[in-house]
Amino acid sequence: MTAHDDPPHAERPGGPVLVMTKVRPPVIRRATLTRVDLQTRVERCADRRLVLVACPAGFGKTTLLASWAAARPAAEPVGWVTVDEGDNDPMVLWAHIIEALSGIRPAVGDAVTVEAAGSAALTDAVLPRLVNALTDQPSMTLVLDDYHRLTGRASRDSVAWFLEHAPAGFQLVIATRSEPRLPLAVLRARGELCEFRSDDLRFTVQEAEVLLNGRLGLGLDPADVGSLVNRTEGWPAGLYLAGLSLEGTADRHGFVQRFGASNRHVVDLLVDEVLDTHDPDMQELMTRASILERISGPLCDAVTQLPGAGDRLAELARSNLFLVPLDDRGEWYRFHHLFGQLLRVQLERREPGFVPTLHRRASAWHRDHGGTPEAVTHAINAGDYGQATELIAGVWLEFTNACRYETVRGWLNLFPDDVLRSSARLLLVNAWVSSMSADRVDATRCIDLIEGLGTIQEGPLPEGFRSVESSLTLLKAVAAWGDVGAQIENGRRAAVLEPPGTPWHPVACWAIGVGSYLRVDFDEADRWFDTAARTAPEAGQWLTAASALAYQSLVAGELHRPQQQQELAERAVDMTERLGLGGVVGEADVALGVSLAARGCQSDALPLLERGVDAVRSWGQPTELASALLHLASVLRSLGDPPRAAGIAKEARSIIDACRDPGNLGARLEVFEHARQPRAAHPGDELTERELEILRLLDGPRAESDLAAQLFVSFNTLHTHVRSIYRKLGVSSRADAVTRARSRGLLELDLT
Questions:
Q1: Residue 731 in 3-state DSSP?
Q2: Cα 649–653–655 angle (5° rounding)?
Q3: Are residues 134 and 170 in contact, defined by beta-carbon separation less than 8 angstroms?
Q4: Model confidence over 510-557: pLDDT tens digits?
Q5: Whether 129 and 250 share a structural domain
Q6: Which of 72, 175, 438, 677 has the most CB atoms around its CB within 10 Å?
Q7: CB 598 within 8 A of CB 733
Q8: In angstroms, rounded to a whole number, what is the distance separating the alpha carbons of residues 554 and 128?
Q9: Same domain membership, residue 695 and residue 614
């Protein structure tokens, strides 16, 4: 369990930074043609779950939907998210979606955030809460524009889940260049899909007439308008680009006759025509700035290094409709996607080999202005893998602790394979991120590669590790994948390599504590957890601190210290809530649930245990999950739900049987399973008179140590009797023992 964050009052580092221009429809430009018939057709799809606008670049998907959204009445608002590559991290995608929905229905933002869950828990926690929040709201629509940029499986799957479970009053509109991986056939069969394809969005001659002669005032003959429509096959972008080019052409009829018969030829001609209408300095600015996804004046100055570039950008924005504003203040722009691609082609032709230099400048600017994701991407695109490595090394831990695994893995996937395989530091980042996102196969592959490099003595590392070896050893302790013995061994080795006073020593203590707890060595576990809980906050290891408190609570329960058990669990949950980590440190919810169950509050305990199990599951560590499942199964049985309890126990059995060394989990499970075996006809025969006396005392608030003193026996003697009672009743906790005894009438017997 790792975290190396700022203090609790600070905003969580690495969390998704919202780009507000992504959650607003683009500004409708003066020359935009309003396609009333198409907008009406979209409006008629109001009863469909999904509206799909799928066709190639330049068919006016965004313009159509932005115009339609702007024309809708205030009572029927539309949320908007423009998808980009960063949304392949589900945390980023859903942060923007929730922000967009909150903008039109504020109650949504009050009900749910993504900060409390990683990608593996989205469909278990965040999205169900979002669906529930939307159920209570009036109907609304969400547009996901540029959906084709969503290539990450986790993000795509989350959208598919959401589409399937969204309430009836919610509509999703997707604009994409490629077929989305969604259950379109099923939606089509149900009558829940409305589709718009290329043929639907092609310009008619009448629309082209309005655009070219009405909006742009070109005064073309009807024959020339028809010729352009035929030559472009109604491709809106081709007609639009042609119109802009014709504005600066004296021989318009001749231009039309020279126009190519295919989109490729149209593009080749129009690039030259459009660029030629600007002076050489402006052309140079446009081509150099084309490497940027988003452009501002200061960024343009830094990247192009042309005199007055920032000021000329504003001039270009006023005169060139290919530069799309991203805000209302005129600070940020982007090139029309198609035109940007064309400019990059021209850049390579005009200044071959200069692109890496531009990317280096962009990386440096974003690095200095806090835009780490952009800085990393530009560094990799520049081929400056050393700089990219340094940037990633400085922030990956913050991003990982914010559950933004896919962002970090996306960066790593951009590196050439030979660079990645030869860098111990990058492989180490990959191993940690893969482990935290429950990808054991990739984590193991990276660990094997690291050990094969023979450079594990390298260090220190930016994350505070003293060497590659200490980091790798600690990783094996934290992510033990079902081998408790190895967890303890690697934890002890890591505690030596990262001694007291170093930032990672508390994590090593935590790992040893977990292993000891799973081996039922509770006194040993308590000592290690106590050290971790005390030292982790000073080291900034907040996840470790909260988890250690939670495990201390579970240990206190095993040692029958109910007051301490309750206090520690409440402290753990309180810490996670203050840090914005509710639902991430699953063991905190588990500990509080177990504490409530021990006090006879099983109904209150159940939702906490269910949430805790979901969170623990997302970390992918089998022994920790099996332990949490057994606590959940115990409460379910106490609540009178044997079938579900048996199903949970069966899952725990499959996990435990697959572990190399599950510690004492097998014995715990056997105790639970034994409770289902047939009992003797007379229930009192199973317990001795002394055990019945102790059972009566257990039905009270006093700790075992106090009961031992009352009975004039040692704590160990009393605890031996308690364990015998548990075994005979087929339970694993004090609360369950009392509940089972009451159901059999044992506590009503005359024990005098």
A1: coil
A2: 115
A3: yes
A4: 999 999 999 999 999 999 999 999 999 998 888 899 999 999 999 999
A5: no
A6: 175
A7: yes
A8: 29
A9: no
